[in-house]
Design a protein that fits this description.
The complex is a heterodimer of chains A (279) and B (340). Chain A has one domain. Helices cover 75% and strands 0% of the residues of chain A. Chain A is built from twelve helices and no strands. Chain A is elongated, with a radius of gyration of 23 Å. In chain A, 44% of the residues are buried. With 340 residues, chain B is an alpha/beta fold. Chain B has two domains: 7-240, P-loop containing nucleotide triphosphate hydrolases (Rossmann fold, 3-Layer(aba) Sandwich); 245-313, Alpha-Beta Plaits, CATH 3.30.70.100. Helix content of chain B is 33%, strand content 24%. Chain B contains eleven helices and 14 strands. Chain B has helices at 60-67, 89-93, 111-121, 126-139, 155-166, 185-200, 212-218, 236-243, 258-269, 292-301, 316-324, and strands at residues 22-31, 34-44, 49-53, 75-80, 83-84, 96-99, 173-177, 204-209, 221-226, 229-234, 246-252, 273-274, 281-286, 306-312. In chain B, the strands form three sheets. A six-stranded mixed beta sheet of chain B has the order 6-7-8-3-9-10, sandwiched between helices. Chain B has a four-stranded antiparallel beta sheet with strand order 2-1-4-5. A four-stranded antiparallel beta sheet of chain B has the order 12-13-11-14, covered by helices on one side. Chain B is elongated, with a radius of gyration of 23 Å. In chain B, 47% of the residues are buried. Classes of the chains: A mainly alpha (279), B alpha/beta (340). The interface between A and B is large, with 47 and 70 residues.
Chain lengths: 279, 340
């Protein structure tokens, strides 16, 4: 007779057989439900590894304080005057600089093997990435709240009020969500999680600095001014500044939403193609 | 033919009598210049435990990844319960589960959370997902570790959780890629028990292994795979018959006695005797193990002193040597690791 040893990690044979025979296959979850479940996974990972929030918390604080006091006097005469101009831009920059996490996490999943399980499940394929992006929205929201609170403490007064601020954050989140598809595609092409962070930082640093976040483009040399005007981040910052000061620039917002749709239409299929054909 | 996907009817196999669990023909997959799978044919019946035996780099993992819809074949076709793994991948995924060679669980999450995650993704309600997670943790002896992050688990616990995750909904077919590699003997026995229980509940099992005794213990049929090709296929008995049902290994005290000992052994056992690189060793594939004691007695009668002898199953290496003429490990470390 083969009674399993009565230790804590032994297999309970009867329980095992009943567990095996008691399972009925439920109906498949719909795309939204599967995505939300993956979003829940991202939240659990934040709970278990809170260190990953360091730059979502640290970057906003450092950037807001540093640039306000470092450049404020020189650019606008006083830190307080500069903050009114700078804060919407800093909000955009801090969120966009942490968008590469989805790509980083996707790459990690693949190198660890858990992606194999997800890929062999009968669920809507993009849900693993859409869900991770939902989870990242929490990270972006946290960073936004920190920038805004710090800004309010330092004297930033949005004339657009609560509605203007909420709309601004919503627009930034939509843009960040769309932009993240570039990093997910990169996450499937590059070999290590860290290289995803490096490449995205290399792209995002020049893009955020060569924009209207810190100074008015009119003060720049002509060639740079032209480049800055074509930079999508400039459009985002302009729209956010507008909403925060109480003017909704419909044309600007329409243009941005079209750009977001463009990013998703191009990079989501590329990401899914790479994901499907990943060795 | 539309195959019934309802789990509740899966054991009344009337709906698909005659549809093999796996039917693969001429599978080929290359990675650059390396041909990982070079024309694999497999036919596996529902309810069977099927072992794929081969050394590292033989093409086992690549074959499993094709069958589990994770990798497209360059040529050839494979059907799982009648569904094509490329054109009907989604239908295949609805019938199978995969436990990969590297734990396919999330190390940052707890054991409980991993199971709830998969249960939710398969469509269980929150409540049912939690109930199922508890039930499986209990059955696998992991209840104590339910709330711990998987990264703190031992190899055996992780492997059990991995398999538990694969049977959140009992699949019709489970792929187990080297399920016991790296496990201690006790965990290995537990995994074997799980595999037997799965098969007895009607799940078809395809497992890969590097160990002949594992395939022998578990599998109804075995395919031996080498350099991306199936080089032998059959029941464990048939396979062992092709290489001798046992191997007698003898070590002598004196080097000079080897030619005489070789003659005595080959005469008594009626088989060819091999001389391995160890200069005092002899090796014979025995088809009638009952003659072994007689052979040892003959050695002693001839005045030859034996310091050590063993009668055992042929090792994978010996099976390979018999089937292919080259040892299993020779130049077979190739790019099969998916985490290249």
């Amino acid at each position: 007779m083969t009674t399993p040893a009565n230790t804590s990690h032994a297999i309970a044979e009867d329980a095992l057989r009943s567990a095996l025979s008691s399972s009925k296959r439920p109906r498949r979850p719909n795309a939204l439900s599967a995505s939300l479940t993956f979003g829940w996974r991202a939240m659990l990972k934040i709970k278990h590894v809170p260190e990953q929030l360091f730059d979502a918390v640290g970057n906003p604080i450092i950037f807001t304080l540093l640039f306000t006091y470092l450049l404020g006097g020189a650019i606008a005469g006083s830190p307080g005057a500069y903050l009114q101009f700078l804060l919407p831009g800093i909000l955009v920059q801090t969120v966009l600089l942490i968008t590469s996490y989805t790509g980083y996490n996707l790459n990690t999943d693949i190198s660890k093997g858990v992606a194999d399980r997800f890929r062999s499940l009968p669920v809507w394929r993009p849900s693993v990435i859409v869900g991770a992006l939902f989870g990242d929205a929490a990270r972006y929201t946290l960073a936004s709240v920190i920038v805004l609170l710090l800004g309010l403490v330092l004297g930033f007064r949005p004339e657009g009020g609560v509605v203007g601020v909420l709309l601004s954050v919503a627009l930034i989140l939509v843009f960040a969500f769309s932009l993240s598809w570039i990093w997910t595609a990169l996450g499937l092409v590059l070999r290590t999680p860290n290289s995803v962070l490096w490449v995205s930082t290399l792209i995002m640093f020049p893009l955020t600095f060569a924009s209207n976040i810190f100074v008015d483009p009119k003060t720049m040399p002509g060639w740079l001014e032209t480049a800055v005007i074509f930079n999508p981040i400039t459009h985002l910052v302009t729209a956010v500044r507008g909403m925060m000061s109480g003017t909704v620039l419909m044309g600007q917002i329409g243009w941005l939403l079209a750009a977001c749709a463009g990013l998703v239409v191009v990079f989501a299929p590329i990401t899914m193609y790479l994901y499907r054909n990943k060795k | 033919m539309e195959v019934d996907r309802d789990m509740s009817t899966r054991r009344s196999s009337t709906a698909r009598r005659g549809t093999p669990a796996i039917d693969a023909e001429g599978l080929v997959r290359k990675f650059g210049d390396n041909v990982a799978v070079a024309g694999v044919d497999l036919e596996i019946s529902p309810g069977e435990i099927y072992g794929v035996l081969g050394p590292n780099g033989a093409g086992k993992t690549t074959t499993i990844r094709i069958l589990a819809t994770l990798l497209r074949p360059d040529s050839g076709t494979a059907r799982v319960f009648g569904h094509d793994v490329v054109s009907e991948a989604d239908a295949v995924r609805g019938r199978v589960s995969l436990t990969g060679q590297f734990a396919s669980v999330d190390e940052d999450l707890t054991g409980f959370e991993n199971l709830v995650l998969i249960a939710r993704l398969l469509g269980h309600s929150r409540k049912e997902a939690k109930r199922r997670a508890d039930e499986l943790l209990e059955a696998f002896g992991l209840s104590d570790a339910a709330g711990r992050q998987v990264k703190t688990y031992s190899g055996g616990m992780r492997r059990k959780l991995d398999i538990a995750t694969s049977i959140v909904v009992t699949p019709d077919l489970i792929f187990l890629d080297e399920p016991t590699t790296g496990l201690d003997p006790r965990s290995r026995n537990q995994v074997w028990d799980i595999i037997r229980a799965l098969a007895s509940e009607g799940t078809t099992v395809l497992l890969t292994t590097q160990y002949l005794d594992e395939a022998d213990q578990l599998a109804d049929r075995i395919a031996v795979i080498d350099n991306g090709k199936v080089i032998a296929e059959g029941t464990p008995g048939e396979l062992k018959n092709s290489v001798g049902s046992g191997v007698l290994r003898v070590r002598l005290r004196e080097l000079e006695a080897r030619p005489e000992a070789e003659r005595v052994l080959s005469q008594t056992l009626g088989v060819a005797v091999e001389t391995p690189s160890d200069p005092v060793a002899l090796l014979a594939r025995v088809s009638e193990p009952e003659r072994v004691s007689q052979a040892l007695a003959e050695l002693s009668r001839a005045g030859i002193t034996v310091t050590d002898f063993a009668l055992g199953q042929p090792t994978l290496d010996e099976v390979f040597l018999a089937l292919t003429g080259h040892p299993a490990e020779e130049g077979t470390y190739m790019i099969e690791e998916k985490t290249a």
